[in-house]
């Protein structure tokens, strides 16, 4: 995965990721079209497929809704890098097939940096700053969820269902 970094601060809650007023749908395209609009107006019109959200502490705090990672993934964001995550968001992200990485040095990444993520090696290369960051290896089962596209595709594959 490779993309441009988009920076956000600490405590980005699920209402900033996708406002509650849009939770009357589970349509991925509709949710994606409103991604981060209360945190940064016009955000979805600025990003490109494959771009990466970079944030501080406690990303995804707030409610336990899966709409937040669904909106992020649906908008074409390839991954989220943060210093830490709310526990329920962490699991919801993997369940929906959204890669999230915990990197304590996330503050040193600047908006606009071009990042390349290697999930297998546990390294994020910052091509703009010519440096790299290590992240804890993703547990094998969680990596399998990501490569399957999330929990539902994983379960369907394991059960042989269509």
TL;DR?
This protein is α/β, with parallel strands linked by helices.
Overall geometry comes to globular
Class by SSE composition = alpha/beta
Which series of helices and strands comes N to C?
EHHHEHEHEEEEHH
- Report the sheet-strand fraction: 15-25%
Task: Measure the end-to-end span.
Answer: 28 Å
- Determine the number of helices (DSSP H or I, runs of at least 4 residues): 7
How does this model look, in words?
- With 162 residues, this protein is α/β, with parallel strands linked by helices.
- The chain has helices spanning 14-17, 28-32, 43-46, 67-74, 87-95, 140-148, 151-159; strands spanning 2-7, 52-55, 79-82, 100-102, 114-118, 123-126, 131-134.
- The protein has a seven-stranded mixed β-sheet.
- Strand 6 (123-126) and strand 7 (131-134) form a beta hairpin.
- The chain is globular.
Tell me the layout of helices and strands.
Elements: E1 2-7, H1 14-17, H2 28-32, H3 43-46, E2 52-55, H4 67-74, E3 79-82, H5 87-95, E4 100-102, E5 114-118, E6 123-126, E7 131-134, H6 140-148, H7 151-159
Parallel strand pairs: 1-2, 2-3, 3-4
Antiparallel strand pairs: 1-5, 5-6, 6-7
Helix pairs in contact: 6-7
Question: What attributes does this structure have?
Answer:
alpha/beta, 19% strand, 162 residues
């Amino acid at each position: 995965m490779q993309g441009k970094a988009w920076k956000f601060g600490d405590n980005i809650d699920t209402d900033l990721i996708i406002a509650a007023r849009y939770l009357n749908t589970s349509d991925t395209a509709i949710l994606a079209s409103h991604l981060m609009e209360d945190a940064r107006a016009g955000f979805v019109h600025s990003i490109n497929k494959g771009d990466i959200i970079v944030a501080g502490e406690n990303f995804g705090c707030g409610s336990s809704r899966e709409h937040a990672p669904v909106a992020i993934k649906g908008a074409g964001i390839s991954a989220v890098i943060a210093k830490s995550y709310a526990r329920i968001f962490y699991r919801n992200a993997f369940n929906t097939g959204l890669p999230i990485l915990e990197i304590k040095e996330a503050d040193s990444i600047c908006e606009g940096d071009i990042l390349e993520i290697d999930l297998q090696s546990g390294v994020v290369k910052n091509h703009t700053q010519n440096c790299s960051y290590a992240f804890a290896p993703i547990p094998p089962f969680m990596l399998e969820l990501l490569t399957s596209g999330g929990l539902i595709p994983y379960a369907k594959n394991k059960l042989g269902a269509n």
